[in-house]
What we know:
Layout: E1 3-4, H1 7-29, E2 34-40, H2 44-60, E3 63-69, H3 75-86, E4 93-96, H4 106-110, H5 124-131, H6 140-151, E5 160-164, H7 171-180, E6 184-188, H8 195-200, E7 204-207, E8 224-228, E9 232-233, E10 239-240, H9 245-248, E11 252-255, H10 263-284
Helix pairs in contact: 1-10, 2-10, 6-7, 6-10
Amino acid sequence: xxxxxxxxxxxxxxxxxxxxxxxxxxxxxxxxxxxxxxxxxxxxxxxxxxxxxxxxxxxxxxxxxxxxxxxxxxxxxxxxxxxxxxxxxxxxxxxxxxxxxxxxxxxxxxxxxxxxxxxxxxxxxxxxxxxxxxxxxxxxxxxxxxxxxxxxxxxxxxxxxxxxxxxxxxxxxxxxxxxxxxxxxxxxxxxxxxxxxxxxxxxxxxxxxxxxxxxxxxxxxxxxxxxxxxxxxxxxxxxxxxxxxxxxxxxxxxxxxxxxxxxxxxxxxxxxxxxxxxxxxxxxx
Length: 285
């Protein structure tokens, strides 16, 4: 019998914990922790995501600085806004919502955000520190997965873990986090031969490939922990993950659903990173 890892429940628990921590910070420092979010353009999914981030800030007690820019915003104006937030001592974390409009140099703009305010955890500095197992701000989704494992008593130490997907946002930092937790890690992708065999060897299987129901029951080891990072639509337009949940679940010891699994943890970990950034900045002042 499998155990469902409920991301909604864990997210609520963690946000309640963080609300207490944020309140203590406000009381001791005389100001709220601050998170700045910049959205350029009219992407509907990005708008929903930003609204959810602002709502999460309200729940936790973080001050939200929100900036909505037009699709045709000049790169110079975007750069000046980011730099003003870098210089603002009341802003502890800066997030520029991706994707940016195509005429903007995303890489150049993101490089303006210093590592200590990079609450997305995507900067070269933070990714490098993660690889070297140094303290840093970690990409929210894979960090959320690690919280799900930890709080369900699942220790990666000594286990074989397979990550299907090698993106900079999920796959690569996920693999590094598992490696840092003493798992033996295999990273698979579109060019991997014998993918089924690699998955079958996994005690912990993380699917982050962006293909609906790609991981099928014959690819999953009996008793495996299966973490589904995917957010897809099936042939009927219904929300689903990268894992064929209905046919896979009975082979698992633990499994995350879609929706209600990893998804809610991403924004929760953004709040977590913002609080950690504020505490680190306070120690350095």
